[in-house]
Amino acid sequence: MLVTGGSRGIGRAIAEAFVANGDKVAVTSRKGGAPEGALDLVCDITDPAAVEEAYAAAEAAHGPVEVLVANAGITKDTLVLRMSEDDFTSVIDTNLTASFRLAKRASKGMLRLRRGRIIFISSVVGLMGNPGQVNYAASKAGLVGMARSLARELGSRGITANVVAPGFVETEMTAVLTDEQQKAITDRVPLARYATPDEVASAVTWLADAGYVTGAVIPVDGGLGMGH
């Protein structure tokens, strides 16, 4: 299996969970640093040639990629009137276009095997929206439409495509928030806390085993986005 953005945060927890299950795991990141037991691949997923090289290395080491977890993503948050063209397109290119590229490459091998799992890591922001995140929300919402289209297109070959939509998660990104900012967030969450990366990973590993779930959006958000 292949996990993108797997050197830290949610992606690292996902990779570690699969390694703990005894799976053969390849991890891509921009600078390297895969968890122990995983194949460490340096890859810029916005570069088609680099993606092809990463897939070739993963396949040479582990055989066909049967599970793709497209997790890598970036943010460039600012209000819409201040958002530059690059702020918008770079987030779309990394979060959405690169996920298409990864899924297209993965589907080649999965079609030959007549089985496979494609799992996109989206966000509650893609379902609810958020001020200052027009670019990020658009990219994460796009993953839902992509997954559901892939589910219909590839389902007859035993390939599922699903989305996990985390809410606020304990990561390096949220650790820098002030106590006031963190309280404002948790006050909105029915479970009144952040998720742990491991809780997101458990949803991903479940989907990897769930042969009759496809086109689904699984929220891991403590109830923040219920109804969306």
Task: Walk me through the topology.
Layout lengths: L1 E3 L4 H12 L5 E4 L9 E4 L5 H15 L4 E4 L14 H29 L2 E6 L2 H5 L5 H21 L4 E8 L5 H4 L3 H8 L10 H13 L7 E4 L8
Helix pairs in contact: 1-8, 2-3, 3-5
Protein name: Beta-ketoacyl-ACP reductase
Keywords: Oxidoreductase
GO biological process, one term: fatty acid biosynthetic process
How many helices? The count is 8
Overall body shape: globular
Count of strand segments: 7
Spatially, the strands of the biggest sheet line up as 3-2-1-4-5-6-7
GO molecular function: oxidoreductase activity, acting on the CH-OH group of donors, NAD or NADP as acceptor; quinone binding
Domain Ketoreductase: 2-172
InterPro entries: KR_dom (IPR057326), NAD(P)-bd_dom_sf (IPR036291), Sc_DH/Rdtase_CS (IPR020904), SDR_fam (IPR002347)
Family: Belongs to the short-chain dehydrogenases/reductases (SDR) family.
